[in-house]
Automatic annotation (TrEMBL):
Keyword terms: Cell cycle, Cell division, Cyclin
Xref: Pfam families: Cyclin
InterPro entries: Cyclin-like_sf, Cyclin_P/U, Cyclin_PHO80-like
Chain's gene name: LOC104766093
Sequence similarity: Belongs to the cyclin family. Cyclin U/P subfamily.
Start and end residues of each stretch annotated as Disordered: 1-21
Ranges of biased composition (kind: Acidic residues): 1-11
Keyword Cell division: yes
Protein name (Swiss-Prot/TrEMBL): Cyclin
């Protein structure tokens, strides 16, 4: 189980088996790639500055888990069935934290716990039906008590600014698509038109979810 101590293995989730035919949305791959780059940069910065800011200490485990960010996000999506938009909004929360607390770095000790907390809160905001904290804790490999504490901590760190306007959501879609294009993944886009022409209130991430 991925506990606060950062154990290597995640326990199987007890509950309905998720559909095996569902493909992982491409947006998860993009976000995991962006987060991996962020963590790598922050680990280097942390070595240079000899420490971290204190704002994100509530999300630190004793050691980094062995599961990759990509596999961790896939696990959350597979078992919670939250909408792909939740991962984008969760990424918005992390970016807001980075701007509000620039001295507090998202590193390997905190990234997994931060991600599951952000996605869970986003699912409560966006999805009509969502699992409770206890289920998210089992999926994320943390204790329910820890997840409850991290949820409250995150809400206060964000000053309870957890709503995301369509304009902001759209801007992050552009950013994520740019990352995809910069990393040579343009072939994954079924529609070759510029994102400005493809976006609509009902298809904001249609090119990313494939």
């Amino acid at each position: 189980m991925l506990t606060a101590a950062g154990d290597d293995e995640l326990d199987p989730v007890v509950g309905p088996e998720p559909p095996t035919e569902a493909a992982t949305p491409r947006v998860l791959t993009i976000i995991s790639h962006v987060m991996e780059k962020l963590v790598a940069r922050n680990e280097w910065l942390a070595k240079q500055t000899k420490g971290f800011g204190k704002s994100l200490e509530a999300f630190h485990g004793v050691r980094a888990p062995s599961i990759t960010i990509a596999k961790y996000l896939e696990r959350i999506y597979k078992y919670t069935k939250c909408s792909p938009s939740c991962f984008v909004v969760g990424y918005v929360y992390i970016d807001r934290l980075a701007h509000k607390y620039p001295g507090s770095l998202v590193v390997s000790l905190s990234v997994h716990r931060l991600l599951v907390t952000c996605v869970m809160i986003a699912s409560k905001i966006l999805d009509d039906v969502h699992y409770n904290n206890e289920f998210y804790a089992r999926v994320g490999g943390v204790s329910n008590a820890d997840l409850n504490k991290m949820e409250l901590e995150l809400l206060f760190l964000l000053d309870f600014r957890v709503t995301v306007s369509f304009r902001v959501f759209e801007s992050y879609c552009f950013h994520l698509e740019k990352e995809m294009l910069l990393n040579g993944d343009a072939s994954s886009l079924k529609d070759s038109r510029p994102m400005q022409e493809c976006l609509s209130p009902t298809s904001s991430l249609s090119t990313l979810y494939v």
